[in-house]
Specification:
Length: 613
């Protein structure tokens, strides 16, 4: 093919020709099957083009333009984003860990679980140059802790304007996480506003208020629900700050938004871009100038996505999430260590988390590209879809009276519970696969041994005012099954009754092995049996009580029912069949369970675990 022919063929490609080629490749299957949907109902098409569904941004939609989809600054993050690392202040060696992080590339530290004593904080931060490396408090911190941190910073700093700490005042998030508060929510917000005004007069670059989306994400929220709740919380703070006399154009400087990022790269890039779009709309609706009010966005890898089993895979999830955050233009990023779900991360976990950011920022030069996702028809439209979906959630919460009222009434908890249920279904049927846990598990792995997390000094004081949100990790149901199997007095084992040649049964026997091991059940596999008699004899010799028949549809129609009966006569308590129930509808009485692509794996494996008990 000549160059001219190649260019002509490239120019002739349009959506219709792609659709025809895709339909041919699918061999008669409906092309609509390639369209997927998110938990909030956003449709994701297989192909995006300029004419079909792309969004073009021009004029003010350049980076730094008023809409902010493409970044809050025309220069993007050319100097790099803030690389944060989180530490438990009550950890014995926390000071050494903090200094190691700062010496090796971290540019800011977030303290979790700190005690509100000046002497304690001074010891934790010994050797830290507070004017160079800002120390932030985790969202939900108390007024007392914020005052203690400021006291330590002031004692060591000659110029308060150089301090860039974040105080983490977030009574809404703390209430949602614990369910308790000493004062009514309105009074706590008023106290935070008073503190904000006091801090603003002396520490102009300190951000007092945190709007923490991780509370909602770790409680089961979808991406749009997380962003919608952040917007509602933002409006709550805007109203309170305006009532205190603050100008609308000064509000954004007093807030920081924390968004979680997970393994869905494009959706999370779009979510960060959508957050800026929605915030600009909120500021404009409140009478402010959106061009003067970019909000600081901190991206944090989602705790909900971390797994205990095969936790090494968490490094891949975290890398994808960090890349998504950086491509979306986050101002600061925190990457959770890969072993975070197992307890207190060790030196290796902290180093890998830090270096994930350093490699993306310094080696790949990701920050050197202004809005790297800009111009992608997919990302541009997905940004608008997430923004619209989040805005609907925001409006729904405002109709309830705002996020605070929705939380205290239980309305918001019910909405998140519905989303948790939908995500649980997706995890259970593996339409949302978790590598190393629900897919491709390794029963021979040794779980990493980590110290337990330090006791959180936060005490549940005051009145219980609402239902606390749970910490929802996606992999927990499968991990519970794995733990139950490990703790069982007798190891659960299943025999694969493979009928026919290897080519006949291998697809379904491989599928069955993967599925059963996801629930902690060891599989006895084999090369297959020529007839039922040989299969049943091998089962009897295996000394197991559970079997799964694996073969082709044609073999099933001839011998599956008889094989199931013979297995039961040979002592099988449970007999499964690898295939959809429609392949052997007449054998329902002979088969205890069917396993197939899209089945509820947890439900299918429950009878085995009940048998163990």
């Amino acid at each position: 093919m000549t160059r001219e022919d190649s260019e002509q063929n490239f120019d002739d490609r349009d959506y219709e020709s792609w659709q025809a080629a895709a339909t041919a490749a699918l061999k008669g299957k409906d092309i609509s099957g390639l369209t997927t949907r998110t938990l909030e109902g956003i449709e994701r098409s297989p192909l995006y083009t300029r004419h079909q569904n792309g969004t073009i941004r021009t004029g003010d939609d350049f980076p730094g333009g008023a809409a902010f989809a493409r970044g809050s600054r025309a220069s993007g993050n050319l100097l790099g984003w803030e690389i944060r690392q989180s530490h438990f202040a009550m950890r014995n060696d926390v000071n050494a860990q903090i200094l190691a992080d700062l010496e090796n590339g971290a540019t800011a530290i977030t303290l979790k679980g700190a005690a509100p004593e000046i002497a304690n904080l001074d010891s934790v931060l010994e050797g830290v140059h507070l004017e160079l490396a800002p120390i932030h408090l985790a969202p939900g911190s108390t007024q007392e802790l914020a005052a203690a941190l400021l006291a330590v910073c002031e004692a060591r700093s000659s110029d308060p304007e150089l301090l860039r700490n974040h105080l983490g005042l977030d009574p809404v998030g703390r209430l949602a996480r614990t369910g308790y508060s000493v004062l009514p929510l309105e009074q706590e917000i008023k106290q935070c506003v008073d503190t904000t005004n006091e801090v603003a007069s002396r520490y102009p670059n300190v951000i007092p208020i945190a709007i923490d989306g991780s509370v909602w994400a770790n409680g089961g929220a979808s991406d749009s629900q997380e962003l919608g709740a952040i917007l509602s919380a933002g409006v709550l703070w805007i109203r309170a700050l305006l009532e205190s006399g603050l100008s609308i154009n000064d509000v954004s400087d007093k807030l920081e938004i924390t968004l979680t990022v997970g393994p869905d790269q494009f959706l999370n890039t779009a979510k960060i871009r959508a957050a800026r779009v929605c915030w600009a709309q909120v500021i404009s609706a409140c009478g402010g100038s959106s061009s003067q009010n970019p909000v600081t966005i901190h991206a944090q890898t989602a705790q909900a996505m971390l797994t205990k089993t095969d936790s090494w895979v968490n490094m891949l999830r975290a890398t994808t999430a960090c890349f998504a955050a950086a491509a979306g233009g986050a101002d600061a990023i925190t990457v959770a260590p890969f072993d975070d779900a197992l307890g207190l991360s060790n030196d290796m976990g902290l180093r890998l988390a830090r270096n994930t950011q350093l490699i993306l920022q310094e080696e790949t030069k990701l920050s050197a590209v202004i809005d790297p996702a800009g111009g992608s028809w997919y990302v541009e439209e997905l940004t608008d879809q997430v923004a619209n979906s989040a805005w609907e959630t925001f409006q729904d919460l405002e109709r309830q009276g705002g996020l605070g009222v929705a939380l205290l009434s239980g309305y918001w908890q019910e909405a998140l519970a519905e989303t948790r249920s939908e995500r649980n279904k997706a995890v259970a049927d593996r339409s949302m696969p978790l590598t190393g846990t629900s897919e491709f598990p390794n029963l021979g792995e040794q779980l990493l041994d980590r110290e337990p997390l330090p006791q959180d000094p936060e005490v549940l004081e005051g009145e219980q005012r609402c239902e606390a949100l749970p910490l929802f990790r996606w992999s927990a149901p499968f991990e519970t099954m794995r733990e139950a199997a490990t703790a069982s007095a007798k190891e659960p084992v299943i025999f694969l009754a493979n009928l026919g040649e290897i080519a006949t049964h291998t697809a379904r026997s491989t599928f069955a092995l993967n599925l059963f091991e996801a629930g902690g059940i060891r599989v006895l596999n084999n090369d297959g049996f020529a007839n039922t008699t040989a299969c049943v004899e091998a089962f009897s010799a295996s000394n197991t009580r559970i079997a799964c028949i694996c073969s082709s549809d044609s073999v099933y129609s001839e011998s599956a029912s008889q094989t199931a009966q013979d297995l039961r006569d040979a002592g099988a308590t449970l007999v499964y069949l690898a295939g959809n129930p429609t392949v052997l509808a007449e054998a329902d009485t002979d088969i205890d369970g069917f396993i197939y692509l899209g089945c509820d794996v947890l439900e299918a494996l429950t009878p085995i675990h009940q048998l163990l008990n």
